[in-house]
């Protein structure tokens, strides 16, 4: 009896609308609890979490109720459902790697990074993602068995308007619940997780879009006089250089080695009594190196590109999206390569075994004053020489030598490594370090690719010494951002002598430390510095 009533209801447009609403609501809640760490506590916050997907889902699907023709009406609701499901899935994948949600700038800036990506996104998929297919198979099955029939009767406009009005009322109700728990939720929220927890992913995406548009408008209305505030602030907070250290490397070549996804805990770390990065350890502990033990990455959604920007310009990235992708083509940067060329006649070059369009580097490097950019087009990129994000590190250093030797000294150069990048895969022929055994492949293999990077750097240092460049150079090594995201730290806990059950936010924060080393051959006053800093 009840099934017959349900079948009869599903054979109406209202029934199809209700089915899609309930399925998306259930799928969203499953993602909230299984994939996102939203910090939900107490009955009230759980209640708000259960409520927040409904308003926006009803509002979006109600668009299909206004369409009178049968097939277009059903098609519109299905396409809206698929688009919203895709947004949910993309956020799940993004969150697993970056522990964050996709903003509008990230979504529209995808073209600047897509050419450098291959299969890393698919590596983030897990068996539980079957929930993104089960509902679609269910809908398809109900249509094929004619349980869902295309109702030719259009929804009256007043009824469609009533549903839209109810959806807006429900969203307002949801916002009120959120404001009760966290006053001024939209006005002073600094954490995107709060918006998703209280208002839902769709609401966050729309809100972020409006906020981004407002920011862009404010930027367009800015004028040169606004720069005076920045200049005055910089002058008021000027920090004098250390007189004993200032100028000790004057006139020397500068070689920057960008350690991809390399975290501080790897330094001096032993896995099964074997050093993961023995060469980097020797540099870190050397008196010829100024090493920093409490150096934190401060990147935003631009990740690697944000780290590069801070290194070159001493300025932060954007609160949303990548500065390289969003503003890099339009701005001239006061950056290290340009300044060194203008002040001391330095030649500058970047070596990177990925496509030049990745993170919009083709444009940004020109605007930073780099004279040469050796991207993937300058290297042999046969399949066996490539890792997930470009040329393997050993090949990068080896093949860059012929270009490095042609640069006029003094030079400022940067080598961007890529092999130690998620999902940390490496051919067995290149891997000679045992993986960990946590059950999480990306954590286990992290030590393998880090060891490979260590070997690549040691080989490059040997070349510098044999070529005579070593004694006349300053070598800077820095980690750009974390390699193991917060969502996978619990798998790592036991390897660090900690318990997953007592792992805390403080532990997550400590995992944001990255190495920073300034190696100056001939200096003997270096050592490990405990001062706090960041990049």
Secondary structure layout:
Elements: H1 2-10, H2 13-34, H3 42-61, H4 70-98, H5 104-108, H6 111-114, H7 120-123, H8 131-144, H9 157-181, H10 192-199, H11 201-221, H12 227-236, E1 253-259, E2 270-271, E3 274-275, H13 278-284, E4 289-296, H14 304-313, H15 323-327, H16 336-344, E5 347-352, H17 361-368, E6 372-374, E7 386-387, E8 390-391, H18 393-404, E9 411-416, H19 441-444, H20 446-467, E10 473-479, H21 489-492, H22 505-510, E11 516-519, E12 527-534
Parallel strand pairs: 1-9, 1-10, 4-12, 5-6, 5-9
Antiparallel strand pairs: 2-3, 4-11, 7-8, 10-11
Give a description of the structure.
With 535 residues, the chain is α/β, with parallel strands linked by helices. It folds into two domains: 2-218, no CATH class; 251-534, Alkaline Phosphatase, subunit A. 48% of the residues lie in helices and 11% in strands. The protein has 22 helices and twelve strands. The strands form three sheets. An eight-stranded mixed β-sheet has the order 6-5-9-1-10-11-4-12, sandwiched between helices. A two-stranded antiparallel ribbon has the order 2-3. A two-stranded antiparallel sheet has the order 7-8. Helix 17 links the parallel strand 5 (347-352) and strand 6. Helix 3 (42-61) packs antiparallel against helix 9 (157-181). The longest helix is centred in the first third of the chain and has 29 residues, at 70-98. The N and C termini lie far apart (66 Å). The mean pLDDT is 90.
Compute the CA-based radius of gyration.
Answer: 27 Å
* Terminus-to-terminus distance: 66 Å
CATH superfamily of the largest domain: Alkaline Phosphatase, subunit A
Mean pLDDT: 90
| Main β sheet profile | 8 strands, mixed
Count of helix runs: 22
Task: Assign a percent range to the helix content.
Answer: 40-55%
Low-pLDDT windows of residues: none
């Amino acid at each position: 009896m009840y099934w017959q009533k349900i079948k009869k209801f599903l054979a109406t447009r209202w029934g199809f609308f209700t089915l899609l609403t309930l399925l998306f609501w259930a799928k969203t809640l499953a993602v909230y609890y299984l994939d996102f760490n939203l910090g939900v506590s107490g009955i009230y916050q759980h209640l708000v979490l259960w409520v927040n997907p409904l308003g926006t889902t009803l509002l979006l699907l109600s668009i299909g109720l206004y369409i009178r023709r049968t097939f277009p009406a059903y098609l519109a609701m299905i396409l809206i459902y698929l688009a919203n499901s895709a947004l949910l899935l993309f956020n799940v994948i993004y969150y697993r790697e970056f522990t964050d949600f996709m903003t509008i700038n990230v979504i529209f800036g995808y073209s600047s990074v897509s050419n450098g990506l291959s299969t890393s996104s698919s590596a983030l998929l897990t068996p539980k993602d079957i929930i993104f297919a089960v509902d679609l198979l269910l809908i398809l099955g109900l249509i094929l068995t004619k349980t869902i029939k295309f109702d030719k009767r259009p929804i009256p406009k007043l009824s469609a308007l009533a549903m839209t009005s109810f959806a807006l009322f429900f969203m307002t109700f949801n916002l009120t619940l959120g404001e009760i728990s966290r006053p001024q939720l939209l006005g002073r929220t600094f954490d995107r997780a709060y918006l998703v927890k209280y208002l839902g992913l769709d609401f966050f995406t729309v809100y972020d879009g409006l906020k981004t548009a407002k920011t862009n408008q404010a930027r367009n209305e800015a004028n040169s006089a606004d720069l005076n505030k920045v200049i005055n602030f910089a002058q008021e907070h000027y920090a004098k250089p250390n007189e004993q250290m200032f100028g000790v490397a004057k006139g020397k070549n500068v070689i920057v080695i960008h350690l991809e996804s390399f975290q501080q805990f790897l330094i001096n770390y032993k896995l099964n009594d074997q050093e993961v990065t023995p060469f980097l350890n020797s540099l870190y502990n050397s008196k010829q190196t100024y090493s920093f033990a409490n150096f934190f990455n401060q990147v935003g959604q631009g990740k690697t590109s944000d780290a590069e920007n801070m290194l070159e310009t001493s300025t932060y990235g954007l609160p949303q999206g990548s500065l390289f992708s969003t503003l890099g083509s339009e701005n001239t940067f006061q950056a290290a390569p340009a300044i060194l060329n203008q002040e001391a006649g330095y030649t500058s070059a970047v070596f990177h075994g990925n496509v030049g369009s990745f993170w919009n580097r083709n444009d940004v490097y020109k605007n930073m004053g780099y004279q040469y950019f050796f991207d993937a087009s300058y290297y042999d990129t046969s399949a066996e020489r490539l890792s997930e994000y470009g040329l393997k590190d050993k090949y990068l250093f080896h093949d860059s030598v012929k270009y490095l030797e042609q640069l006029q000294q003094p030079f400022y150069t940067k080598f961007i490594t890529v092999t130690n990048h998620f999902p940390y895969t490496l051919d067995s022929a290149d891997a000679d370090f045992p993986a960990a055994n946590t059950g999480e492949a990306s954590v286990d293999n992290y030590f393998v690719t880090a060891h490979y990077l260590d070997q690549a750097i040691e080989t490059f240092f040997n070349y510098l010494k044999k070529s005579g460049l070593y004694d006349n150079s300053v070598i800077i090594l820095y980690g750009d951002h974390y390699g193991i995201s917060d969502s996978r730290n619990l798998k790592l806990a036991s390897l660090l002598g900690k318990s997953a059950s007592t792992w805390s936010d403080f532990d997550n924060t400590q995992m944001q430390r990255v190495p920073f080393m300034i190696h100056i051959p001939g200096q003997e006053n270096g050592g490990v510095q405990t001062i706090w800093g960041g990049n």
